[in-house]
Structures are given as C-alpha cells and as structure tokens.
UniProtKB/TrEMBL annotation, chains A, B, C, D:
PANTHER family: HTH-TYPE TRANSCRIPTIONAL REGULATOR BETI, HTH-TYPE TRANSCRIPTIONAL REGULATOR RUTR. It comes from the Bacteria. Keywords: DNA-binding, Transcription, Transcription regulation. Residues 12-71 form the HTH tetR-type domain. Residues 34-53 bind DNA. This is TetR/AcrR family transcriptional regulator.
Amino acid sequence: MNPDRKLRADAQLNREQIIAVAHALIAEHGADVPMEEVARRAGVSIGTLYRRFPNRHELIRGVALNSFHQVIAIARTAEDEEPDAWTALTRFVREAGGDLRLAAGLAMRFAGTWAALRDDPENLRLRALLLKILDRLVRRAQADGKVRNDVSAADLSMMMALLLRPMPGLQPDLTPAGAGRYLALMLEGLRARPATDPLPAPEITLADLR
Amino acid sequence: MNPDRKLRADAQLNREQIIAVAHALIAEHGADVPMEEVARRAGVSIGTLYRRFPNRHELIRGVALNSFHQVIAIARTAEDEEPDAWTALTRFVREAGGDLRLAAGLAMRFAGTWAALRDDPENLRLRALLLKILDRLVRRAQADGKVRNDVSAADLSMMMALLLRPMPGLQPDLTPAGAGRYLALMLEGLRARPATDPLPAPEITLADLR
Amino acid sequence: MNPDRKLRADAQLNREQIIAVAHALIAEHGADVPMEEVARRAGVSIGTLYRRFPNRHELIRGVALNSFHQVIAIARTAEDEEPDAWTALTRFVREAGGDLRLAAGLAMRFAGTWAALRDDPENLRLRALLLKILDRLVRRAQADGKVRNDVSAADLSMMMALLLRPMPGLQPDLTPAGAGRYLALMLEGLRARPATDPLPAPEITLADLR
Amino acid sequence: MNPDRKLRADAQLNREQIIAVAHALIAEHGADVPMEEVARRAGVSIGTLYRRFPNRHELIRGVALNSFHQVIAIARTAEDEEPDAWTALTRFVREAGGDLRLAAGLAMRFAGTWAALRDDPENLRLRALLLKILDRLVRRAQADGKVRNDVSAADLSMMMALLLRPMPGLQPDLTPAGAGRYLALMLEGLRARPATDPLPAPEITLADLR
DNA sequence: CATGAATGAGGTTTCATTCAT
DNA sequence: CATGAATGAAACCTCATTCAT
C-alpha cells in the first residue's frame, strides 16, 4: 500500500544493482539501451527489472534521481569543508566529474533531456537544490574576484553537462581522464582576468534552465 | 557502374535534400532517426532513399563527409585570410560552430562515434586533413604566446565536438547562442596565462584520436 | 491431504471473498482478468490466491461451480413451490437472471466455454442436474399448452446464457434492467400460440449441449 | 498524402483478406486474438498487417466498419424490396444474422463494446444510419399491428447483438443454425398479441444506445 | 500459512531493408 | 528510376506461475 515501504533485503540489492548497471550502460550507449541488456547485466530477469521499474521512463528516472542525490552530496560537502569558494567550486567539479564517473553529467543531462523528466516534481526539486548551492558558490567566488562576473551557475552546470559525455574517438577508458582535463580547462575559462573580451551570446541564467 | 558517375540533375537534388534533412534530424534527435522519417521529410519515398544510400551507415557517412568538407573549407579560409594564428583560430571556432549550425560538431563527432566510420578511409583522410590545419594554427599561436603550451589541436577539436550539441533543458532556439557562448569560454580557457595550474590529466594528442 | 478437509475459518472467508470478486470481475471484463487484479480486489496477496486456486483454470472452475449451485437451488425452489409449470419457469428465469446478477449466465456459459471445463465431471454432473429440472418444467408446460412444442430446455438455457451478458453500448448499471426486459421478451417468444411459423433451424436438444 | 488514396491492387487484396480473417477469428475467439495469428492465417507477415492497421484498435475498427457497411446494405435492400414492414424486418434479421455469419452481431457489438470505438465518428455515423432504417421499419410494423408497441429498434438491435455470439457448448458449426433459430424466437417475442403482460424493465430507446 | 519477489514465455509494436509494380 | 508494399528480426511490456522469506 505504502509506496515507499521498505523492500525486502534481496529486492533492495537487486534494485541497486539495476540502477548501477543502467547508469553505466546509459552513460556509454545512451538512453535507449535495450531493457533486456540492462536486466542481463544486472543478473536479473526481464520480469524483475519491470517489476522494479514499470517502464523505461521510471528506470531512467531512478538513475537520474540517484545520480542527483550523489552530486548534491558532493556539492554540500565541498561547500561545508572548503572555506574558500573557488576552492570549493574546483573541488566540486573535480569530484563530481571524476569520482562518480558521469554522475553529474547524467544527472544534469537527463534532468532536461528526457522531456517527461522535466516536469517530474522530485527532479525539479533536486535540480533547484543543486543550483542553489552552486549559485551561492559562484557568487561568493565572484565577490572574491576569482570568477568572471558575466557567468552564472547555469553556465557552469550546462558546460559540465556537455563536457561529461562519452568522448567520440577516444578509448572509453580514457574518457574519465579526458573529462577531468576538459573540466579543468573550463574552469580556467571561467576565471576572472584583468582584461577579457566580453562574452558574445546572451547571458544564460538560472531562469533559462527550463 | 562507375560509383562516381555524375547523377542526373534531379537525382543530385534528391541526394542533397536527403543529406540536408538527415543532418538536421540527426543533430536534433540523434543518429537513430527512422529512415522513413528522413525520407518523408526529404520529400522522397523510402525506396529512393535506399537507392541513394544503400543503408543507414552510408547515409551517416554521407552526412559526416559532407560536414567535414564544409568545416575544412572554413578552416582553410581562416588560415589563408588571417595572418594571425590566434585570430584564425577564433574565427574558425566561431564560423564552424555558428554559421554551419552543428556541422562541425557532427562531423567530428560522427567521425569517431560510429564505429564503422572510424575505419572509413575517406573519413580518416578528411580528419587528418582538418587536424593538420588546426595543428598548424595551434602551434603557431603557441609560438606567439597566445595559447597555453600544454594543449593540442586534439583538445580543441574534442571540446568543440562536446560543446556543439543540443543543450539539455534549453529552448532549442537558444542552442546556437549558447554554443557561441560556451565556445568563447572554451577559447578563454585555452589562452596562455602568466601563471596557471598545470592540467591534471594526460595530454591528449593527435595520436590518441583513434 | 484430504482435499475436502475443512478450511480454517479465515481461510474459508478468503476463499469466498476471492470467488465473489472473481465472479464480479469475470462478469464485467471477461474471463481473462489478471490474477493480480483478482487478488488485489479480494484483499489478499497473489500468493494466497494461488494457494487457494493453483491456477486460473481452478479459479474459474470454482466460480462456475459456485454459480451452478446457486442456480440449481433457484430451480429447485421454483419447481417445489410453484404448482404451475409455466409460473415456475418464469419465476426461475426472473430470479436466476435478476437476483443473482449474471450467475446463471456465467454458470451456463463457462460450463461450455472454457474447453477444459467441458470435461470436468462435477461440472457435467451439475449441468445435467439443472437441465433435468428445466426439462421437466418445459415438458410439463408444453403439456399444459403454455410452451410451444418445438423448443426444449436446451433452447431455454442457451438463450439465457446469451442474453445474460454485459450489454454493449448500455451504461453498465442499466444492464440488469435490460436483462430482465429481454428475458421477458424471450419468454413471450417461447409461448405456445394458436398459429405460428415453424422454427427454421434444426431443433437443439439436450444432447447437442456438448 | 491523401489517406484514402487507392491502394495498389495486391495491397487491396491483402487488406480484404486480413479483414476477412480477422472477422472470423474475432467472432470465434474474441477481440484478443494474437495479431500474429491473424497475420499467419491471412497469409501475410506480421509487418504487413501492421502496415495496413497500425495497431489492434485500427484492425478492429476496420472489421467493425466493414461489417456495418454490409449490414446497412442488407437493411436498405430489405426496406426497398419488401412493401410490408414486418416482412422487411424478418428478412433483415434472417439475412443479417445468417448469410453474413456474425456480421451484424459483430458490427453492433463492437460499435459499443470497444470503448474507443464508441467515439469514432465514422462508427457513430453508421450506427445512426442503421438505427434510423430499423426505426422506420419498426414503427411501420407497429402501425400495421404486427409488432408490440412497447419495443423499439434499440431493443431489436440489442437482442441481435446478444444473440449473435458464439454459442457456448455448441459445436461451432452449429452456431449459425442456432443463431437463426434464436433470432426467429426473438421475432416471435416481439410480435403484437391480443393480450400480453407488460414488459418489466424501463423501455430502452435509441437514446440509451450510448 | 501469508507475502510479495523472481522468472520467463508470449504478445505487441517498430523499423531497417528488400523487392514487386 | 521512383514508389510504396512486404518481410522479419528485435525491442517493449504483461502476466501466469513458482518460490524464497
């Protein structure tokens, strides 16, 4: 009856296993991996997969929300433990992009890519939560003169979502390393400089993210 | 018989129309648009589409090579007309990313994403050609002190390929503007600076691109 | 061990509840309601349902035999309490078709519809029992000049089985009323008349019912 | 482009074959025959079936509308060729119920049974058309003193829909004969008589049919 | 004995590709 | 050479049924 009731221990294990496998496969092959493939790699039958996630949408939702929770945890820790805003930002980018594979990218990407997820209340809640933390950090770093004034947390999250993708033409095992490299270059681009050209396009703010 | 034989005028039109439509659809919905959809939007029957491109692979190959040709033309013009290497680079990035929509991104992306294309001789030839031009420009700009020494043309093309994608959560019509914005930030990141932190990951060179 | 062993009181309740729910659902949605739906509406788990009825066949058998018992009771009462055969017949039709909802229709229908039930000894026994009572009533009413001579108890039961179904295009709550109406018209048709056209088709007798 | 454009000759043949097979199978086994079975018996591949009817609903719609057209043609002919209304009615009932197998029953049944069909404009149009003809005939026959005054065309069509179904427990090949028999008994019931009991239930009129 | 998780067969539907007109 | 019909493999999803807790 209660939808959030505790699962049986083995069922909970299965659920986690499915999410992990789906996360990896989606990151590698995109959101339309065969459900059978997910089931097989997770070591369950197709029926079990569908009992836990009644359709593809729910599976992706499960993966996205799961990722979001992890990314938010990283952001919170970074903000709490690092007194300096810029340091907190770089730590967040490094950890979210590196340790958790493509967690951040997936989370942010699916947050908006899968049309149906865009109206999911839980997803919107988590996204707002994350963007609030990042917004605080960006503004503090800007006040410290570390980040250029014409960028926003929306820019940061959008670039992360774009850069945290499978890299075409690179051996898959080089991808995490590559991601770290390009995220570092991105941070360089966001830094405040004595004199820089103005950015061309319209500013993108939190309000534009949906 | 001769595969390069001139097509009849109307057939040639069909071919171009198909490529244009396929390019747009792939850029928007990914590489697995239904062939029927491509045919319908191009105003031809499915049979005609298959007469021109015997299977999906050939269609994507057509799109990718076509894009590559355009991007290379842009790169050549920029190198020829701009005496300054850095100016040529920014012009290339701006024009390839802007005027041609997602041409550049598509080209580079498919160059490596579709496994079968990775061994396609024509594709390899064009890719080498483009990377050679970019490599010249990057090295010259580095010699001029405009670009940091620890990046390569491979980095440039990879980041372009990543940033030139549909932006999740943004209205589709904002995408080109957003692309311009993020490409500009990327160029900032590539600039040589008095003192910067070293890049974390292994250098990625032309040799790593396949 | 003993299949007819008394069930525990609560188990017996479960069993009755399941039959009632299954009866209603089958009457409304046909014989292929999901077993899970039956279980849910009966307030038991799917496991309990299967403990009581090892498969769908047994469940339907349970429903059909249960209905049959009720219909037979009605027929017996009508025969016992009404001295006039025609009155007994109309009373049977009215009560079996009305009070018990679709009990009669279901009973007779499933008796023959579900192939596997056609060879079920208990089902055959009950069907023979019911038809024997109806046969007595029809013959007596024919002897009284109340029922045309070219119809049989087989005709009567067949028409009841056909008319006691959900009525397409009618609000579900009008169905019982409609059933009463059409059963009444059917009885009119069965009446003996001074001069009527002969019935066209081959007579259908008790022997044809299987 | 034009959805009603002529099909190629062979495709038209296939379409008709599919409808015929689907009609027969649905009449025998209900509306949930496997699509594969329909395809196989029609001698086409599953793909062809789905090209012609994009889903089960469209297939059933095709069958129902096809039946309706035939039934309406029968009704029109009967009304045109028989000067006497009662004779026209009996002819309609006999022909619609006999020659066309279960055409009439199917048509009327699906018209309302498949919820989605209840709002189909073409279906509603045909149903109204048929009921109008039957209504004219019933009223004329009532004026002639041949049909009881408390029944309507709605009663007639509803009883036909109910009686034209597979007969449980009867060999399938006896079904058409049985249908003819029960339709004849039904007509007897509808006849005007010197003195009859009033019908119990609320009158059912054309307005109640949806 | 009740529960609800897991299995897997089978039905539905989509689409790349081939081929008759 | 264009058209659009036919094919069939593969994906999606739903349940009946079994079995661990």
